[in-house]
Write a structure and sequence with these properties.
single chain, alpha+beta, Cell Cycle, Spindle Assembly Checkpoint Protein, Chain A, five-stranded antiparallel sheet, 27% strand
């Protein structure tokens, strides 16, 4: 991200749509890794510490998990820049029962874009896309955006204090809600919403740029 020529670099400057899209996609990548680590889906020794957002983040060093996340991110980057994404969901599933035990939902709003979108996805058409906001978001400094992102990751980390312990072995899947006219790779299949019926829901913090807003919600089962 660069300031405009001739402008005072100390002043607030806003991310381009492309820069904002990259930032949101990167946020998703670290969110997936953080959830997998904090919820113990994989052993702690399978993660490596890296510095990001002024925090120590844990990312998976397991080859299969890394390859899966890399495949998701390569497609997500394209969809984000094209303004095609309305939602990303990380689903944690019990290997024993096949039931969804936790569902982390990230809703994406795109500012200043007229919308005539139908919600399709890599997952269901049964859940509509979040409509883009009509108002333009106020400009923010990079430090302000990073502070908001830090707050979300701190909340994800603190979630272990109220989320029930995951019983038995679990696995995860990532669902992406994209526009109906999106180019979808062959290896991406349709999925149901993996909703948790009568589950508890906790709304976490959000962050925004001049182009996007991301809201975070976790749903979970109590009867386990």
């Amino acid at each position: 991200m660069s300031a405009e020529p001739g402008k005072d670099k100390s002043k607030v400057h806003k991310l381009s749509l492309k820069g904002s899209s990259k930032l949101v996609a990167e946020f998703f990548q670290y969110s997936i890794n953080t959830i997998l680590f904090q919820r113990g889906v994989y052993p702690a020794e399978d993660f490596t510490a890296v510095k990001k957002y002024g925090l120590t983040m844990l990312v998976s060093s397991d080859d299969q998990v890394k390859a899966y996340i890399k495949k998701i991110m390569s497609q997500l980057d394209k969809w984000m820049v094209g303004g095609k994404i309305s939602k990303l969901v990380v689903v944690i599933t019990s290997k024993d029962t096949g039931e969804t035990v936790e569902r982390w939902q990230f809703d994406v709003q795109i500012f200043s874009r007229p919308s005539k979108k139908k919600s399709f996805s890599k997952t269901p058409a049964s859940e509509n896309a979040v409509p883009p906001a009509e108002d333009v978001a106020p400009e923010k400094t990079e430090a302000e955006i990073q502070s908001e992102i830090q707050s979300i990751f701190r909340q994800i980390t603190a979630s272990v204090t109220f989320l029930p312990e995951l019983a038995g072995d679990c696995t995860f899947n990532v669902l992406v809600y994209a526009d109906a006219d999106s180019d979808v790779p062959m290896e991406w299949g349709d999925s149901d919403a993996k909703e948790i019926i009568n589950g508890e829901k906790v709304q976490l913090r959000s962050f925004s740029t001049a182009s996007h807003k991301v809201d975070t919600l976790v749903s979970y089962r109590m009867d386990r």
